[in-house]
């Protein structure tokens, strides 16, 4: 398709509607001919952009000589589009790390995946959870009905495809982004990508003929999203508290705490939660903790706007500037004991956390700042939407939001 007509021989109408994909390919081949290799860094990509820009100027000059009636406002916007696409389009074709992990997963080698008699029921050796996928599919057309054992069979077929026909690469998606182009060439390009994608679908489907519960539509959906495959594995709170060798070196840096601020707050919050479970109140607070707010119609329990104030909120609002130093000093040793228990559960020596963090937690007293609560409410709402719509990847690790320095970190144990 690229060789049908050189850019230099095109009319102004055809040249200005040439898809940027073709333009980038033409100048990429010129770069490879000149240097003998694919662009490897930002500097070399900038050189391709420069080649495209200069090429546009040269082609425009040639058009002016060939077409006397060429409008003075004529602009090759598709060449500008090509320059913008270089950074994202001119990349080595690789398999994403999240997909590599799936291809290397032990479940790909499970003999259950090749056993025709095994279905997605709870009797499988893989012990996958069962769900009413048809009901979920009716509620949300985006959600796929592929069960866990189907998924791993598809992953295995994908791995076999990559190792053989795919020549080490994932299947082509079969779609194109919007771009400046005439309909004929855009559809021609799209058909090339779709044909290549359908070929991959056929090759994968041929490996799954013995499983009638896996339809061609399942395979097609799988191929289309092969670059975005991911398995979310969550941990229970008990598992979360166990020491992970991958995190041991990081935890040993606790005395410096410069690179581990989020981890420190996580540990301190765990210690404070343990304190709360034992005493029924937050460290530094003299009031028992409750998750329910009781309102009063008494005028003295209203704020300046006349709105009733919850009891806990009244307490913090009237005493925020009068911290009880005695309570804080008496709670610090107890909080330290609870924190040391948490540290020991991680396999860390006790008394490794600076007292400043404990004092800050006692002064905090379980308060909930409106700005922080609103932000975290938004985070939780976003995660709920992910689970309801089955789109995007939900958070599966402890998330710490530090409003002091406006930082969010996912802790990987």
From TrEMBL:
GO terms for molecular function: ubiquitin-like modifier activating enzyme activity. This is NEDD8-activating enzyme E1 regulatory subunit, variant 2. The lineage of its organism: Eukaryota, Metazoa, Spiralia, Lophotrochozoa, Platyhelminthes. The gene is NAE1_1.
């Amino acid at each position: 398709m690229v060789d049908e007509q050189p850019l230099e021989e095109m009319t102004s109408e055809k040249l200005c509607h040439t898809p940027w994909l073709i333009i980038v390919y033409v100048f990429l081949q010129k770069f490879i001919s000149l240097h003998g290799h694919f662009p490897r860094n930002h500097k070399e990509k900038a050189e391709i952009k420069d080649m495209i820009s200069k090429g546009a100027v040269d082609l425009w000059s040639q058009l002016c000589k060939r077409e006397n009636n060429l409008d003075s406002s004529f602009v090759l916007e598709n060449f500008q589009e090509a320059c913008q696409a270089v950074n994202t389009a001119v990349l080595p074709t690789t398999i994403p790390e999240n997909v590599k992990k799936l291809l290397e997963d032990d479940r790909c080698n499970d003999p259950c995946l090749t056993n025709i008699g095994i279905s997605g029921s709870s009797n499988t050796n893989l012990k996958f959870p069962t769900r009413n996928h048809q009901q979920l599919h009716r509620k949300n057309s985006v959600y796929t009905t592929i069960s866990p054992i189907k998924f791993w069979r598809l992953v295995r077929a994908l791995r076999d495809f990559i190792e053989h026909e795919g020549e080490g690469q994932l299947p082509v998606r079969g779609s194109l982004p919007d771009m400046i182009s005439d309909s004929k060439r855009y559809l021609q390009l799209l058909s090339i990508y779709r044909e290549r994608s359908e070929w991959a679908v056929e090759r994968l489907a041929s490996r799954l003929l013995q499983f009638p519960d896996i339809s061609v539509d399942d395979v097609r959906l799988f191929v289309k999203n092969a670059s975005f495959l991911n398995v979310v594995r969550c941990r229970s709170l008990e598992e979360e508290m166990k020491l992970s060798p991958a995190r041991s070196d990081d935890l040993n840096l606790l005395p410096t705490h410069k690179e581990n601020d989020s981890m420190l707050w996580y540990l301190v919050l765990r210690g404070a939660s343990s304190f709360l479970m034992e005493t029924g109140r937050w460290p530094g607070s003299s009031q028992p903790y409750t998750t329910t707010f009781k309102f009063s119609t008494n005028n003295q329990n209203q704020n300046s706007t006349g709105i009733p104030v919850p009891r806990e909120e009244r307490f913090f609002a009237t005493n925020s500037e009068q911290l009880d130093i005695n309570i804080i000093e008496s709670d610090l040793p107890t909080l330290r004991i609870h924190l040391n228990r948490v540290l020991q559960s991680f396999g860390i020596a006790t008394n490794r956390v600076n007292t400043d963090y404990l004092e800050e937690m006692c002064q905090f007293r379980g308060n909930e700042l409106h700005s922080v609560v609103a932000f975290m409410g938004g985070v939780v709402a976003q995660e709920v939407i992910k689970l309801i719509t089955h789109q995007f990847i939900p958070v599966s690790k402890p998330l710490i939001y530090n409003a002091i320095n406006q930082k969010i970190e996912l802790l990987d144990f």
